[in-house]
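name: query_chain
kind: protein
chains: 1
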Amino acid sequence: MDKIKPPLLIESGPVYWSFAVMSIALGVVLIAAPANWYGPSWHYFPQLPHNGFGMGVCCCAIGLAQVATLAWRRSSLVLSVLFFLGGFVFWTAGMILGAEGILGRQGLMEAPFMLVLGGHKLALSASLMNHHRAKQGTQE
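structure:
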């Protein structure tokens, strides 16, 4: 008798959709932020807008790509790559904010949120990649 495995939380649709919608919402907030609002490019990348506009565009683009993938082509490989990119963006922003906060500038309060969110997205990406590899192994 085969054992029936319970579905993993990571394989549920709401988890994917919530991360995609959250990325879009955060991107819109960062794009609409005032010009003097602090963003993760304050001192290290002075040529970038300081209000997080560039990160907002990245978040919206990645979030919209995730929504499109979920709506039309639910591929664990494509979702894995998109969640990795999103995790990389958030993790990098968290590291920059943390470094600037440690150096005595603004950003230390936002860094843990960005790092945790990036870590969740990276873990979700790894889980999706394992799911994709397991599916590939059973199809052969």
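note: The chain has one domain: 19-134.
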